Amino acid sequence: MSSPGKSAVVGASPEGARDRDSASRAVREMFSSIAPRYDLLNHVLSCNVDRMWWRRASRTFTHILRRPQANVLDLCCGTGDMTFALRRRAGKAAPHILGADFSHAMLQRASQKSAGTDLRWVEADALNLPFPEGHFDLVTSAFGFRNLADYDAGLREIARVLRSQGECGILDFGEPRGVIGKVYRVYFKKVLPAIGTMISGVKGPYAYLPASVERFPEPQEMLERMRRAGFREVSWTPYTFGIAGLYWGKK
Questions:
Q1: Is 246:170 a contact under the CB 8 Å cutoff?
Q2: DSSP-assigned beta bridge partners for residue 171
Q3: Do 51 and 239 form a contact (C-beta atoms < 8 A)?
Q4: DSSP state at residue 53
Q5: Alpha-carbon distance 121 to 101, whole Å?
Q6: Considering its fold, how many domains does the chain have in total?
Q7: Which among 167, 107, 170 has a CA at the least distance from the CA of 143?
Q8: What CA dihedral angle connects 57, 45, 219 and 229, to 10 degrees?
Q9: What is the DSSP letter of 174?
Q10: Spatial separation of the C-alpha atoms in residues 113 and 16, rounded to whole Å
Q11: 105: left (phi over 0), alpha (psi -120 to 50) or beta
Q12: Range of the domain at 232
């Protein structure tokens, strides 16, 4: 069960943030500052396990991705790694896959990586999406939802743009239990920030990362928030001992 403190959390709160708007600005500035080395750092810091997580999450939605003319949104897409995983899983099908993020620097990297593909990118705020109600068959978000300044508002916005029976998948970090959890926390809170800061040359984002995971609602609390937002079926599947996990919901 979720701890009382986490259940009351509204959203991400980087150091110095006073309200939802200042939190959003701080997150945008942090991720824009590390965009040039974002992919390298993700792979190094996760020992390439992140690639496996994206593939596994995309497989969950094969039935939608291989549906002709499906509309798919990858939210908080960063440099597009989850978006690319969705496209690979679609195979020869022709879904309309769109990546959205509010960091222009991240989208520039995604656009460079996607040259010659049919992927499209849009600069947009996850809390105020420029899409009509019921537009998408699938909305995903990989390691970005945790950074929203208002989790409940983000879930409501995802539900708004999903069609009836549409599905969402939120892949994000968790906090594993037991001995593995103790070892992981040492790495996550001490080693990872040091390596991330050294490679990127920027301290803020990698000091913020473990704090943002600790602040994020635990699985049962997230599932309850999803139900309140309008998802009638929800589940959480842990990946790699619970270091990460996929929140799934059907509208």
A1: yes
A2: 142, 246
A3: no
A4: H
A5: 8
A6: 1
A7: 170
A8: -60
A9: -
A10: 33
A11: alpha
A12: 4-250
166 CB-near residues (< 8 Å, 6+ apart): 134, 136, 137, 138, 139, 250, 251
Write the pLDDT tens digit of every residue in 66-96: 998 999 999 999 999 999 999 999 999 989 9
Bridge partners of residue 170, in order along the sequence: 141, 247
pLDDT of residue 37: 76
Please tell me the distance from the alpha carbon of residue 34 to that of residue 31, in angstroms, as a whole number: 5
- Burial of residue 1 (CB within 10 Å: 0-12, 13-18, 19+) is exposed
H/E segment holding residue 227:
helix 219-229
In one-letter notation, the amino acid at residue 49 is V
- How high is the pLDDT of residue 111? 96
The CA–CA distances, whole Å, from 33 to 38, 72, 210 equal: 9, 28, 18
Determine the Cα–Cα distance for residues 5 and 169; give it in Å rounded to an integer. 25
In CATH, what number is assigned to the domain containing residue 25?
3.40.50.150
Structure tokens at 95: 């879904």
DSSP notation for 11-49: S---TT--SHHHHHHHHHHHHHHTGGGHHHHHHHHTTTH
Helices (H), 67-191: 81-90, 104-113, 151-161, 178-186
Residue type, 56: R
Q: What would the two tokens of residue 100 be?
A: 């959205």
Q: Which residues, 6 or more positions from 139, have their beta carbon under 8 angstroms from its beta carbon?
A: 72, 73, 74, 75, 158, 161, 162, 166, 167, 168, 169
Predicted confidence (pLDDT) per residue in 37-62, tens digit:
778 777 777 778 999 999 999 999 99
Q: How far apart are the first and last CA of the chain?
A: 24
Residue type, 140: T
